[in-house]
Structure formats: C-alpha cells, structure tokens
Design a protein that fits this description.
The protein has helices spanning 121-129, 140-145, 154-173, 181-184, 199-212, 258-264, 324-342, 350-354; strands at 3-6, 41-47, 65-71, 79-85, 92-93, 112-113, 133-137, 187-197, 220-226, 234-237, 241-246, 275-280, 367-372, 380-384, 401-404, 408-412, 446-451, 457-461, 474-481, 497-502, 507-511, 538-543, 555-561, 568-578. The chain is α+β, with helices and mostly antiparallel strands and 579 residues long.
Length: 579
C-alpha cells in the first residue's frame, strides 16, 4: 500500500510563428562542485561488535560499525551531519586474497567482512572538506538476512540509521567516541541529511518515516536516494528529495527509483518539499561504490551491466558508457552539491538543482535534472498535468486546450485500468524500458502527442485569474521521445517551440533545444535484446526571461509549436510555471 511520509512532522494557432526573444539568458555562476573545500579532514573507524544491535522486528542481530569523516577544526563548527547507508552486497570474503564472496553474518572461519561502507570515502572526504560531518555505516548484518524479512530489511535499515544517530548523540554528551569529544560536539544534529544507495535508498526513506514517529525526532532536512529500490512505494514529503538514476543500471534495470519523484508530485497539495531527479547518462549501479567496482579487487565487485550487446550505449566498449572515475565524479558532484545547497544553504548551487544550467564541465558526463517545486507560497502553477482523460480539451486551470493542425493525442501511462498503459508506438514486452509505468499501480499519466506538419500546435489557454506570471522564473514540462515510432528519425534530436502570447496580441517563441538535450533521440542498439533505451521523462525548462516582447502580466496562452521538425511523437506531462 502506498503511504505518505511526513518528514519534519508535516505530514491552435497560426501556422507560421514569429521567432522572437530567443537569446539565451546568461548562465548562472555555479561553483565547481568537485573542488575540495578548505577544511582539513580527519577520519576514524568505529565498531561496537558484529551483533551489537537488533533492529526492532528484525530476526537477527547486526553490527554497529562505521567510519566517520569530519573537519579537524572543531572550533569552526557547527557542521551539518550526513549519514551514508550502502545497499545490498555480499557480506564476507576470504582472507587475504579477498575472493569467494558470500552472504553470511557474522563472518566466520577466518573470513573478513566486505567493507561496503568504505566505498563512498571519496564523497565523504569531499563533503567534510566543505564543513560537514559524514558517518558512513555498515549494514552487512541486514544484507545477510533481508531476503527472509517481510520488508526486505527496509524497516531495519531505517532503524539502523537512527541507531547510529543515537550513538553519536550519546557520544556528544558523554565520553566514549572514537574521536575527540570536542569534534563530536561540533556535529550539528539540527541539520541532518541522509544518502542511501540501492536498498539503502529505500532504507533512508523508512528512516525519515520512523524518525517522524519519535517523541524527539532528529532534524532530517534533506535525503538523497542513489540508484534506489522502491519496492514499497513510500512517498517522502515535506523535505528536499534528490533521486539519482543511472541509465545503465544493470541491477535495478527497471529504474524503479523514478517513482520517488513521480509519486510525490501531486500527492499532497500542502507538501513543502522540493523534489528532484537527476539522471546520469551512462552510469551503472555499482560504480558509485569503490568497493563494488572491479578495480577494487574485492569479492563481489563487478560491472552490473550484464548485457553482452556490444552496440548498447551501456556496453563498456562504448564511449557513451562512463568509466569508474567519471561516474564517481558525477556522483560526487551532485551528491555534494545537493547537501551543500539543501543542508548547508549554499544558494549558489540552486541553478544546478533547478535544471537551469548544464552539467558542470569538470564532471565530464551528461546529467539531466528535473525539478518539481512546491505549489505552496505560489512557487508553482500547474497549467496542464496531462493526467486526466480530458486533459487534451481542458487544462488544470480550467482553460481550453486546443489541438491545431494534424496533431493527435492519446492518454498513456497511468494505470492499465484507466489508460492504454504504454506510451510507446510499438509495445515493448520488456517493462524495464518504461520505468514510469504503473503495471497495476500508479504510474505517470501523460499525453502522447504525434504531429505530421510544421503547423501543428497544442495550445493551453490561461484564465484571467492566472495570467500574471511575473512571479515565476520559467515554464517547464517533462517530455520523452518515442524511440519506437518511425516519425522520429533515428539518431536525430527532436525539437519544438514554446510560445507565450498575451492579451494584446504579443507573442514570443523559443526553441527548447536552445536550453538543453532533453529531447535527444536515445541510442537504440541493434541486434540482441536490451533494456536500453529507457523511455524516460526529462525536464524541458525555458526561462521566462527568454520570452521578450510579450506582457508577462497578461499572458493568455502558452502552447507547444511543432514547427521545428516535419513530424514526430513524444509524450508530455507536468506543464507548469515554476519558481
């Protein structure tokens, strides 16, 4: 059953269009997220024993062990506190060669624990250098028994996360910490962030829920599920949630983590949380953890992309596949900037997380960000969610929707009981290609748009009460190219224009390709079956500053003009004006 998480205790037109105002706004000055900070970093291990803690409701005791990274100068604190939680992996290996992985706990007969929690040291040290304390915790005991647990160990992971916070809070107040007590006292328990990888991602979502049920909850301010599972469709609300999706994930190849963003969009009108999803093109599941990567030489480390199709963009032989180093640069840059922005208040990173700017050059990868702001405090105005059966006729504001020319629409996505489940022209037997699909549960309802002439348009009328959009920064929607439809030429990016008109007859038109790669044609490998490409929605964002010569205080329509390519087919969702 889907449940809400209460974080922080809160619960047509003319065929020929004038192209004006298309000069791109100056890019924002975003700091390089891979540059280390000025703090000298210290670190230390701690281990209270392999069976020191039994999470409530979990069948077996588990370890209380981890590694702490922190700024050496306690006097310059307080330092926000971030907890890292790894995912499911082999737990034990032989010594000293590090082979023969197994799932057992504790490790016996001279075998050693696989230190999965140390695989994020690169990101922990970077955050610590910028003035953060980071605790990366071990969850081998849960991994050894979670498949026998009704909740797959997710609740146990949540309890384990909070137990480590309890432990460090106790060490703040009394002796016993593995580091100087003055350093522990510099940890800011009023600003806590959580990162969880794979099953750890779902684990931190449960930690937020469990924390909200405590009499004295921790101030968890932001969470980042990294390539996460979403077995139980929990919905974290009322805090910033940034979900990382790697397109070459061979472990969770259905990319189920997209649902953390999808499900949260319209669940609660009072949700004050910001929701982001950042898609790392060419990244796999394991390489974010150095100890799950083949170069580590440790047991169980492997490239999880298992397809033998050498034409796939995910095959290691392809330039579209990220190396270990480049993948970790992307993870480090976005993970670090997320917490530095939402936990540490570094507003210079805001353009990156709103999708206003391209991936920083230092990262050397393509990362596409979708951003969903809250509707409270006039931060977002939904024009057309494209979710209702009549959303091709009337929009969210009650305005008329007009299809111009030869444009056709079809409601897709959502649930099979209410819509044609597939948004693709050619139905795909492999459900992993459409991660937004519901498959019997909630999915993303969208309108599939197909055009065959450059005069085709889709217009949304803005009622008078909502025509002053000056308080917003951009018009945005999510879109995905149908790679199964021959209307989209293989290998050629799609493009269209967003047009804004006012009551006096002013009109401004901007091509979306000017602002990113959101409608690039996905690489389709020939030959052997492959889950690549995925039908993924990406944010198309055009700043309102680009629409010159139009009165933004009296906007009477916003429409999509398909005059950039002769034909095509895409699915669209979530047309909004946004902060």
């Amino acid at each position: 059953m889907r449940r809400l998480l209460a974080a922080a205790l809160l619960a047509p037109l003319a065929a020929t269009l004038l192209v004006t105002g298309t000069a791109q706004a100056a890019p924002a000055d975003v700091p390089d997220p891979l540059v280390n900070g000025s703090h000298e970093v210290s670190e230390a291990p701690y281990n209270l024993g392999d069976t020191a803690y039994t999470p409530p409701g979990f069948a077996k005791p588990v370890e209380l062990a981890g590694q702490v990274y922190y700024p050496k100068d306690a006097a310059k604190g307080p330092y926000p506190l971030v907890v890292f939680l790894h995912g499911r992996h082999s737990t034990c290996m032989s010594a000293p060669a590090g082979g023969n992985p197994s799932l057992a706990w504790p490790c016996t007969d001279g075998r050693l624990p696989i230190p999965s929690h140390l695989g994020y040291a690169y990101a922990a040290r970077s955050l610590a250098s910028h003035g953060y304390a980071v605790i990366s915790i071990s969850a081998n005991g849960i991994n050894a028994a979670d498949n026998s647990d009704a909740q797959y160990g997710m609740v146990a992971r949540g309890h384990l996360t909070l137990k480590h916070l309890d432990l460090w809070r106790d060490w703040r107040d009394q002796a016993g910490a593995p580091i100087p007590q003055e350093s522990v006292r510099s940890f800011d328990f009023g600003k806590v962030g959580l990162m969880g990888h794979s099953r750890g991602g779902e684990g931190i979502v449960r930690a937020v829920e469990l924390n909200s049920q405590r009499p004295a909850p921790y101030a968890i301010k932001a969470i980042l599920p990294l390539a996460p599972t979403d077995f139980h469709r929990r919905i974290p609300l009322n805090l910033p949630v940034g979900t990382l999706i790697p397109t070459c994930d061979g472990d969770l190849s259905d990319l189920q983590g997209v649902h953390y963003y999808d499900d949260a969009r319209y669940t609660d009108a009072n949700d004050i949380g910001v929701h982001s999803i950042f898609t790392v093109i060419g990244a796999n599941h394991n390489y974010f953890n150095t100890n799950w990567t083949p170069s580590s030489g440790l047991a169980g480390a492997w490239d999880d992309w298992r397809s033998s199709n050498t034409s796939s963009q995910c095959h290691p032989s392809q330039s579209t596949r990220l190396s270990e180093e480049k993948q970790r640069d992307a993870g480090n840059g976005y993970l670090g900037s997320f917490f530095r922005h939402y936990l540490g208040g570094e507003s210079a990173f805001a353009p990156l997380w709103r999708g206003e700017v391209a991936t920083p050059a230092s990262i050397g990868a393509t990362v596409l960000v979708s951003y969903h702001s809250p509707s409270v405090n006039n931060r977002r105005l939904d024009v057309n969610r494209f979710a209702a059966a009549d959303s091709h006729q009337v929009n969210q504001l009650g305005g008329q929707v007009v299809l111009g020319g030869t444009l056709t629409t079809k409601l897709c996505g959502g649930t099979p009981s209410t819509t044609d489940a597939s948004c693709l022209n050619t139905k795909q037997a492999n459900r992993q290609r459409e991660p937004h699909r519901g498959y019997g549960t909630l999915g993303v309802s969208a309108q599939r748009l197909a055009w065959g002439h450059i005069s085709d348009t889709l217009s949304n009328t803005i009622p008078v009460a909502h025509q002053d959009i000056r308080k917003f920064a951009a018009v945005r929607f999510r879109a995905a190219v149908d790679f199964t439809d021959p209307a989209n030429p293989a290998g050629v990016a799609q493009d269209l224009q967003v047009v804004v008109t006012d009551r006096a007859g002013g009109k401004a038109s901007v091509p979306v390709a000017q602002f990113g790669k959101h409608l690039d044609y996905p690489h389709v490998p020939p030959g052997a079956a492959d889950v690549i490409p995925h039908f993924l929605f990406h944010q198309v964002r055009v700043p309102l500053s680009a629409f010159t010569g139009v009165d933004l205080s009296r906007v009477d329509s916003v429409y999509l003009a398909f005059n950039k390519t002769p034909k095509g087919a895409i699915a669209v969702a979530d047309l909004t004006f946004s902060d």
